[in-house]
UniProtKB/TrEMBL annotation:
PROSITE patterns: PROTEIN_KINASE_DOM (PS50011). Residues 16-287, 271-526 form the Protein kinase domain. Keywords: ATP-binding, Kinase, Nucleotide-binding, Transferase. It comes from Medioppia subpectinata. This is Protein kinase domain-containing protein. The lineage of its organism: Eukaryota, Metazoa, Ecdysozoa, Arthropoda, Chelicerata.
Length: 717
């Protein structure tokens, strides 16, 4: 033999210790050995004594190919020598063949587990199969992108090796070996030997056509893909079940193109295959939740701190929340829904408390979901359940959020209408029907979940609404009847696009609120039963929640009643303002709903807070007449730029990521705040622009300026 393969008698026993026989083949057998001097583990392929000229050519070719390639994608060549006329090839040791991995994997899946375990194993099996195929495709892509490209010509599971472990992130488990039939593809149309390789994995053109190219390896890759994912392209069966039906359709279509014949040039390249399959990767829910939580910073969402993995466990550190919504609902129903007292006034008060708590929790939940749905790129939560909604025991200001969203493992950006999403067959009672049956759904799927949670909070049934209402206090039946139509709209199916948005729900909820007298009744009753509530529920949440929310609502209602007569319908432009143009208003760059600050510097410095409503029109509260006026910027800004300036405070406060509100709601809060503070906004000791605090609260329902969070928080309303 030649090709730099030297004779070295006694080398095998002199330098190596045999540890195990790894398998036999037509040319010889492979052993696992330990080098006696270095203790390193290697593999040695030992050929049979008699080697024909044809086999000799193949062996030399394999040694030549392996010695020229030094990559994680192929098994590493160490040495080759002849000993007693027997050829020895020393290579990197790999623990298993892909053939062995597939066999064990399939046996484990077919063991006969119960339905739930089988489903979980199917997810694991899919993940393993995807990663193995991805690494194998990258390895083959390495060969096909060399200069010149190399055709393997015998790619099959037995010739693909797998390491037991790798050191370092991004290292390859999968390595291609057995390069006896490999050949450089130097030019298009070159002549190649026919009928090479393993029959089942051999491309049709290799059996009869001399002029083939690296696309023959793509056919073999397609056959291996069938083995990994257990796909029979002649049938429509799929071992992973319906919950991955969309992925199956994609894989099946891809495999068909990989097995295309006789037009083998139409098969996809490895690079195209990798680009296509990247969308079918099984998402790591742990990683996905960490990514979402780290990107979202808001009182509406549980705060993310850090995340890490230890061995087989995964940890996510977040803000601590005392309860989930399921626990709150269960305790609330036990405490207030069916009071066992004889005093009718106490029964009425407890029914009011039950309703008030349900209303306030549902409003906070809807605002939290509205935050996700009104981001610059909206987010569909897709797993909204009472267990995924957390509740804190105490807030430190009247405008703080008790309710926070969590569990973002299934959340997804909704970039455009008609965007396809994953069909999900998780058995979840709160999942919208379209999520299980169609990939074309949108933010309204969360509204369905919100509607079901609303039913639980108010203890009503969407299917026998009036029967459930009859169990409620007679004095509150009218309040509960107002819920029927909105809940029905939220659960609309299959025409889910007719479901209301969170903003529309919040607008309709104003009619559900208790009156000032009803809230005063609750406060009076609360003084009598607060100890009972804390003792029975074994926590202070309901007491803290009721005190904070009642105080805020009663103050708001008192202010509203005191100024209600001063809030007119939208008036005509104020005729006292002349029509001389304002020089700089055109650079405002506002959109509908933005808060506008107009400051006039004259003998008396005055500030006008308004809402831009489009068409250069601003709706504002006149500081003199206390009327709501609608005027153009041109007429409103009647002085020159030295005496009058216009600011879009949305841009100044840099709060576009926060949740938007309807303009009428902004105006009401702005007017009430003006009355509450006698038209003098509060100041802070840092001299910060409190106007920014004010409009941030009015526009977004957020009580603090972002610049002051963690330094000095100034409560606005």
């Amino acid at each position: 033999m030649d090709c730099n393969i030297e004779t070295d008698e006694g080398k095998y026993k002199r330098e190596f210790e045999c540890l195990a026989n790894m398998g036999w083949g037509s040319y010889g057998y492979v052993v696992k050995v330990r080098h006696k001097l270095t203790n390193d583990i290697h593999a040695i392929k030992i050929f049979h004594k008699v080697i024909s000229d044809k086999i000799n050519e193949s062996v030399q070719n394999e040694c030549r190919c392996l010695s020229q390639m030094n990559s994680d994608f192929v098994v590493k060549f160490r040495n080759a020598w002849i000993e007693g006329q027997i050829l020895h090839i020393q290579t990197e040791f790999c623990d298993y063949s892909l053939q062995k991995i597939i066999s064990v994997k399939n046996a484990l899946l077919d063991f006969g587990w119960g339905p739930e375990i089988s489903r979980q194993l199917s997810l694991i099996d899919y993940f393993i199969s995807y990663e193995l195929f991805d690494e194998l495709t990258k390895s083959l892509n390495y060969l096909h992108t060399l200069n010149p490209p190399i055709m393997h010509r015998d790619l099959n599971p037995a010739n693909t090796l797998v390491l037991n472990a790798v050191s370092g992130h991004g290292r390859q488990f999968v390595k291609i070996c057995d390069f006896g039939y490999a050949k450089p593809h130097k030019q298009k149309g070159q002549s190649n030997t026919i009928n090479l390789g393993t029959l089942h994995y051999m491309a049709p053109e290799v059996g009869y056509e001399k002029h083939y190219d690296p696309m023959s390896d793509i056919y073999s890759l397609g056959r291996i893909c069938c083995d990994l994912f257990r796909v029979d392209i002649s049938k429509s069966s799929w071992s992973y079940g319906k919950f991955m039906l969309e992925k199956y359709k994609g894989w099946r279509t891809l495999i068909v193109t990989m097995l295309t014949g006789p037009n083998f040039w139409d098969r996809p390249t490895c690079e195209k295959i990798l680009a296509t399959t990247s969308a079918w990767q099984y998402k790591d829910i742990f990683l996905q939740e960490c990514q979402w939580l780290s990107q979202i910073r808001s009182d509406f969402v549980v705060e993310f701190r850090s995340a890490w993995r230890e061995e087989y466990r995964q940890y996510i550190e977040t803000e601590f929340c005392d309860y989930n919504m399921r626990e709150i609902i269960d305790i609330k129903n036990c405490l207030f829904s069916q009071p066992s007292v004889d005093d009718t006034s106490a029964v009425y008060a407890l029914a009011l408390i039950d309703y008030f708590i349900a209303y306030e929790l549902f409003e906070e939940l809807t605002r939290s979901l509205n935050y996700l749905h009104t981001l610059d790129i909206p987010i569909i939560h897709r797993n909204l359940t009472p267990e995924s909604i957390l509740v804190i025991n105490t807030v430190f200001n009247s405008g703080g959020q008790y309710v926070k969203l969590s569990n973002f493992g299934y959340a997804k950006l909704h970039i455009f209408n008609g965007q396809p999403h994953t069909i999900d067959e998780r058995v979840i009672n709160y999942m919208a029907p379209e999520v299980a049956h169609s990939k074309y759904y949108d933010l309204k799927s969360d509204i369905y979940s919100l509607g079901l949670i609303c039913c639980e909070l108010f203890d009503v049934s969407p299917f026998s609404f009036k029967n459930k209402i009859n169990e409620k206090s007679a004095s509150l039946k009218e309040k509960y009847l107002q819920l029927e139509e909105p809940i029905s709209d939220m659960l609309n199916s299959p025409m889910y696009d007719l479901r209301p948005t969170c903003t529309q729900i919040l607008s309709r909820m104003r009619a559900w609120r208790l009156s000032l007298d009803e809230m005063l009744t609750i406060r009076e009753m609360l003084d009598q039963i607060s100890n009972i509530i804390v003792t029975y529920s074994e926590n202070e949440f309901f007491h803290n929640f009721l005190v904070t929310k009642l105080s805020a609502r009663i103050d708001e209602s008192t202010v509203q009643q005191s100024v209600e007569s001063d809030i007119p319908t939208l008036a005509a432009p104020d005729p006292s303002i002349n029509d001389s143009p304002f020089i700089d208003y055109n650079v405002l760059n506002a959109i509908e709903g933005d808060i506008i600050e107009i400051v006039v510097n004259g003998e008396r410095c005055s500030t006008i807070w308004g809402v831009y409503v489009g068409g250069d029109q601003v709706v504002y509260v006149c500081p003199e007449s206390h009327c709501l006026l609608n005027q153009s910027l041109e007429t409103l800004c009647c002085d020159d730029s030295e005496r009058c300036r216009v600011n879009n405070l949305v841009e100044v406060s840099e709060s576009r990521q926060l949740s938007r509100r309807p303009t009428d709601s902004i105006l009401c809060d702005a007017f009430r705040a003006t009355i509450k503070y006698s038209r003098n906004l509060p100041t802070d000791s840092r001299g910060h622009n409190v106007g920014i605090h004010f409009v941030t609260k009015c526009r977004f329902g957020h009580q603090f300026c972002e610049e002051c969070v963690g330094q000095e928080m100034v409560e606005i309303i």
